[in-house]
Amino acid sequence: MKVIVVGSSHGGYEAVRGILAEQPDTEIQWYEKGDFISFLSCGMQLYLEGVVKNVNSVRYATAKGMRAKGVNVFVHQEVTSVNPDAHTVTVHNLDDDSTREEKYDKLILSAGAIPASIPVSGRDLENVYAMRGRDWAIRLKAKTVDPDVQNVTVIGAGYIGIEAAEVFSKAGKHVTLIDILPRPLALYLDQEFTDILEKTLTDHNIYLATGQTVKEFTGKDGKVTTVKTDQAEYPSDLVVETAGIKPNTNWLKDTLDLTDKGLVKVDDHLQTSQPDIYAVGDSTKVPFAPTGKSLQIALATNARRQGRIAAKNVLGHDMKMPAVSGSSALSVFDYHFASTGLKEGTSAANGVKTQSAFVTDTTQPPFVPDAAGNQQVYFKLTFNPENHQVLGAQIMSKRDVTANINAISLAIQGKMTLDDLAYADFFFQPGFDRPWNIMNVAAQEALQKLAQ
Questions:
Q1: CB count in 10 Å sphere of residue 419
Q2: Per the database record, which ranges form the Pyridine nucleotide-disulphide oxidoreductase dimerisation domain (predicted)?
């Protein structure tokens, strides 16, 4: 059997890895449009801040290493179209500008997503950057030490925008962070958490221009100098656009069924509208455990799960994509936070009635001094007030307690209730935590409120 895998990031890599693990003799052709396979954009901040020294190490695998395992790896070659009836793809070799047809028995598309561009004038000015992929990582790294770059404007205050703002703040630049939403990280955290993080960001020379809409980029001598919003103008030697992503699927619109937003429609086995073609990653939706509906949740964890499930089905197994909770985490200077499932701020958009309990505590018993690592921890548990089902949570502290969110993710997927969580068994040792885990405390408080 011959399997063609298109795209080398999380989903594509896991698909290849899954096939090799079970049937290493399968003929695999793996295509990457760029000249570098499996770069991890989620590791970009570590490279930009110098924690990781070599940009070429921010990857899952090398072409040489995968070829040694029997995979036919093609870099700088773009799959431009698919003929489902003939079971062929058209490949454009970007090195010599030639094209050819390749046959497949099974096809796995990890088309991914590309940075969304703000439709305003001035985007063609020099020093308007994106933050996705190895090429942008190298260019951004140079700007962190460029003495001519003093004012950096980041557009978009989600995860990538926060990472960009922190990178350039630590590099000694003045950063303006613009977002149309009223709070940074509003899609990931409720206000109890973002109020704390807002102060942290401003304390680190990051100006928050939230609740504003970008109207124009202006420049001089071909270089950007100013970002204009509906409320103000901000001097800008560098602009980093992180205003979301869009699926890289325009080339598939006449071949596969797509949503109105360009996502590839897949069934619960990740098969597309055409036989023998599967799709994984940021260009698809995944089943969301708290609601039972499918959502676009662009996370590496989801893409890798999809890649493995697609590989299983290609090899003849009958395996459905499991529901996910949408768990994610990030550090913002000294704070570490994680969230999963539904939040107060997203429940209405998902058509779900929720209630929450917010608690604060210390990570260890009161007798443990701060100098020994005892820190304040903030935790918010979201649940269905009618059947008590756990639907989501958020946690934040200057100590890394983010792994608690993994337990809540399992609780969501297992349809556990507040009654289950209130007295669930978690270990206790004063060097690590409290006798009652903060998850127990929040569930107990929620039950007490519901009983009133």
A1: 12
A2: 331-433
Pairing of the two strands 233-235 and 113-115: unpaired
CA atoms of 367 and 151, how far apart (whole Å): 45
Closest CA to 382 of 352, 357, 416, 365: 357
Q: Which of 71, 14, 5, 102 is nearest to 309 (CA)?
A: 14
Q: How far is the C-alpha of 270 from the C-alpha of 276, rounded, in Å?
A: 10
Determine contact, residues 324/280, Cβ cutoff 8 Å.
Answer: no
Examine domains 2-113+246-314 and 117-243 and report if their fold is the same: yes
- Beta-carbon contacts of residue 30 (< 8 Å; ≥ 6 apart): 4, 5, 8, 12, 16, 37, 66, 71, 72, 73, 74
The architecture CATH gives domain 2-113+246-314: 3-Layer(bba) Sandwich (3.50)
State pLDDT tens for residues 373-418: 999 999 999 999 999 999 999 999 999 999 999 999 999 999 999 9
Indicate which residues carry an active-site annotation: 10, 42
Distance between CA atoms of 224 and 125, rounded to whole angstroms? 5
Count other Cβ atoms within 10 Å, centred on residue 50: 12
Q: CA angle, corner 170, sides to 167 and 174, nearest 5?
A: 90
For residue range 278-335, list pLDDT tens digits in order.
999 999 999 999 999 999 999 999 999 999 999 999 999 999 999 999 999 999 999 9
Exposed e or buried b per residue across 104-114, where buried means at least 16 C-beta atoms within 10 angstroms of its C-beta: bebbbbbbbbb
Is the CB of residue 64 less than 8 Å from the CB of residue 21? no
DSSP 370: G
Quick one: CATH architecture of 117-243?
A: 3-Layer(bba) Sandwich (3.50)
Class of domain 328-451: alpha beta
Dihedral of CA 139/143/149/150: which sign?
positive
